[in-house]
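In this supplementary section we document a worked example of the pipeline. Step one takes a protein sequence of length 205 as its only input; no multiple sequence alignment statistics are reported here. Step two produces a three-dimensional model, which step three serialises into structure tokens for compact storage. The input and output of this example are shown verbatim.
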Amino acid sequence: MSLRDFQHALCEMTLDPLFAAAVRSSGVSALARFSLTGLEQDRLLAAARQRGMSLNCTLARSNRFATILDAFPLTCTLLKPRLRALLDDLWHSRRPDNYQLAGEDLHFAAFLQAQLDTGELDEPYAAEILRFERVSWEMIQSLRLSHGGQAQDPGHSRIVLFQHDPRVLLPVLQAGQLPPSGLAAGAYRVRLTMHGDTLEIESDE
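The serialised model returned by step three reads:
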């Protein structure tokens, strides 16, 4: 199992900058959970100390993040001040399911929802923005998976509930800015409708 563990350790160093840093600073002790020969340990230590390892880690994170950003751009903008720490927590505990890095968006959404449910994530607008983007992404994915790229139900609509005025929240986030704090709470509805390959968003009062 030595070769398999060597490949596993190298993959771990690429996907987890914290682990790569631990190998650089702690040496062989950081690799104790892997069954490795002395030569394999030496090769991993040398790889961790190469200048290119940092670039490998950055590229791996960028590729994982691309899928998340594609699905949840507004959520990422809203959480930008703490997004790096959130991604570190997520990726330290969960490895990719496949080499194509598919499913990172679903893991990200589930991770944030769990943090919202437990109160660990206390950003006041996060729950409604995440809910809005999850519904939007589900509708877009349904279109992509439908036969011939055309929506099977072109007029299909879904309602998303907001606790703060989406006419304030959404345009600000779409402009890449953080929304103002202290927006008055209320009850708002947004209707999402698929027309052909276009997702239309409108207030539903």
